[in-house]
Predict the structure of Cupin.
Amino acid sequence: MSLPPIRRIVTGHDSRGRAVVASDGPLQSVVEIKAIPGTVFHEVWSTAGSPACVGNGPDPADGPLMLPPPKQGTRLRFVDIPPDTKEFLAHGASKMQAVFSETGDANVSTVRRDSPHPLMHRTESIDYGVVIDGELTLILDEGEVALAPGSVVIQRGTNHAWANRSKRVCRMLFVLIDGAYDSVIAAALKLPMENEAR
């Protein structure tokens, strides 16, 4: 079963300041990740800076795919996540450089030999993730949570992965908000790296 395309309606203002529909139609940026076939990013919108500029500017979803939000900005996207395969779980860790390079930020991958899932990664952001269709499992360093339609995850810069243990694609809606780690958490995140270097 394939999921329906996303329809995006963008509003704006005419020369008299009246509200109008600026565009109505399919997304301009829909990108399948070649290293994980079936993983599709549907880029909806982003803002750069805060407060966000409210105007009739160009479509911010155009351009290359970038996983994290812009500095002091936000990003809105849907992601279709296919079922994990045995081959991916066994050998996926070796592909993570390629996977995250396709999403514009190879440095977010945190996968190691003992990681609970090949897609472990972390961004310095607050992410709201909503299951729209299908089932998914949120995997953390310690523990995991089964998710169904209507589940909402508030991801606070934590190391995580999304595992699809079902037999069909799961669609998630994500809103990513640029952030900065609290100094206590930032210090704690450096400790494991220093210990591993010894």
Remarks:
- The first strand starts at residue 7 and ends at 13.
- DSSP finds three helices and eleven strands in the chain.
- The chain has one domain: 31-197.
